[in-house]
Every structure is written in C-alpha cells, then in structure tokens.
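Please review this one:
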Amino acid sequence: MPAPRVLPPVDELKRCVDAGMTHREIVGYIADKYGLRVSRSSVSAALSRAGLTEAGMRYKSEIPWRVKAEHLTQYQARMLRLLGRRRADVELTGEEDGRLDAWLEAVEEREIVVAYSPERGFIYVDADERGDNPDGIPIRPRVIEADELPDS
C-alpha cells in the first residue's frame, strides 16, 4: 500500500507558485491549512515533478568561477548568493539582510575580497588587484592557483 499523500494536489501547488510563494512559504501554507509539517525539500521535489519549477537562480556575476560541489556551502558562497538575490530584487528575510549587510561592511572595512581556489575553496585576499570588486561585488574574478595561496 502506498504512503498517504501529504502534499496538496498539483493544481493547488500551482496556485501557490502562481501567487509568487517561495518554497518556504508553501511549507508554511501547508502547515497552516492542513496542519501538516513537510520539508522544503519535499515541496521542491513535488514542484519539480509537476513541472512547476524554473531553473534556479544563477549568480554568474557574484560567483563567476566553476566551483567544486564541496565548496558550495562555504560561508563566502552563501553570502555571495545572498548578494545576488538582493541585486536581483529577491526579497530577503530580515536576518538575511542583516547578515549580508554586516558581512559586506566587514569585507569593506578590512579591504578584502573573496577569491576562489579549487584546492582550498573560497578564501579572503587583500583587495589590491585591478579587477577586484567588479560592479561593486567583493570578489577577485580570476581563480587563485595553488602557488598563490596564502599560508593558512
């Protein structure tokens, strides 16, 4: 016997998406309407199966490097994605806004930028090269090679 259906029907999920609800907001909607707790990943999977998702946001300006999967969750990557969302006029939570503002202030104050090394992942380097901070984004767009890595 199959597991009982927890998520609403596809047409109801479509109405949620059409209303501009985020996956997190849909989780809250399901909890409020049905009294059920579902994960955001379950909602994302259901929307994907129903063909109701668009390709995820790309952050080509903020994260211009080809990044290894094991580095995608590093703090700098998360902050750069938040910056990309802000620049795309995607609403951030108050906590996300505050965290991003504090991070941007800290990198500016310390005169550093985020660089990417395939060996080490995201690192901070002094902002001193021409080409750093393109379009106000605190990054060094070129990949840092192993022989350029600062001692850790």
The first strand starts at residue 112 and ends at 117. The chain is about 40% helix and 10% strand. Helices lie at 10-18, 23-34, 40-49, 75-87, 94-110.
